[in-house]
Task: structure prediction
Amino acid sequence: MQNAAQRLSASTRGTPGGDDGDSLIAGTPKTNGGFMKNRICQHAVAMSGDMTVPHPRPLDRAKAISGMISEEALASERLGRLTDKVAAALLDANLFSIRLPPADGGLGGTGVELFEAAEEISRADGSAGWNVAISNAVNTFVQKGAAAKARKEVFANGPVACWATLLPKAISVEDECGYRVSGSFAWGSSSSLSRWVMVPARLEDRDGQQWFRAHILPKEDADIKEGSWDVMGLRGTASIDYTIADKFVPAHRTFEYPFLADPDPRKASAQWLVQMGQPGLVAFASGIGFRALAELLAAAPKTKRLLAEGTQADDNVVQFGIGELEGRLRAARSHYLDLIAKQDAAIAQGRGPDPAGALDMQQAAQTLTRAARDMTVFAFDNAGTTVVFATNPLQRCLRDIFTGLKHGIMTPAILGRIGKVRLGLDYGAVGF
Result:
């Protein structure tokens, strides 16, 4: 089994640069730079081993490192990727494989445990929480769809992260014992700390349903476009553009899947990936909402505006807003967690989510993410003048949540479709 330093070094072979004092001080972005300069290498080696974090529960593992992740958040943002220290800690805690079974190197956790851990990391840093959510979804999908030989290649060498695209943009040409794959892709979240990437190609429809072929490639097969992740928020996620040029993928590292979910939760599908990935992304928003609330609660008693009487804590608008928005956030979170627990129970019994249950989860996800957004906006609006500085955590919360909520799972159009169903109308066609 590799230690954290070896895993990170393997995940970044062929990439230039690294964490050096000059780049951190000057804030120079090295979007997908290499890892393991001596300073960071020593940290990773100190944390090395099969699993050095002495916490069995995913949430406890997340809590053990969230303080450090918060301290590193500004540096991660300026680098355009998570710092080596954060990446090593997340890998060492195995927080990218929460739902994977122990036989494939995972923690054997549930959807509730994924939510709790991703939320805790997101409170510390939205970019780190986003990468936890994305890589958990991809790792789980690869483990579900791939053959035993491929699973051993990907997961048998210690904790690992994968990145992927769900959009079927790959060109796949059959070759002897496999396929040659090419294509241009985007949104490579977690690319900086991953060792594998999954890209799908569109196949001919079967029985009126869309089908795809997933291809699992080592990171070295992807050409990363440096500087392509220049964005408003989630700057530390390294969600870069990348290309793959005529790379061979052996047949055992491919698998085919439909768009629509199968009643059997053991079978991979695009919808299944979305359903399994949803708790992590919703947890990202929830974590940011609670971080924004915490920042406001800490600052309000000490913040005096120029033309106002007393502090922010004395302002009845601030008081009412906290009372209302915190209540909405907590109620939405509780409801969503109840639905995840029901989904966990169904999966444990060998059943996939029924359509009504999946619709309820979509609705609850929208309610919680929008409550978190409203809490963040309110906290920013009522913050002191220093919120204009990029170093202020509240500004990062605002930029991160608005960026994250542009993800397809969070689109407000889903609420319109839910309304159609409640009115007795058809949900409408789904697919790519």
Observations:
- The chain has 13 helices and eight strands.
- The CA atoms of residues 165 and 206 lie 22 Å apart.
- Residues 9-53 have pLDDT under 50 and may be disordered.
- The longest strand covers residues 178-188.
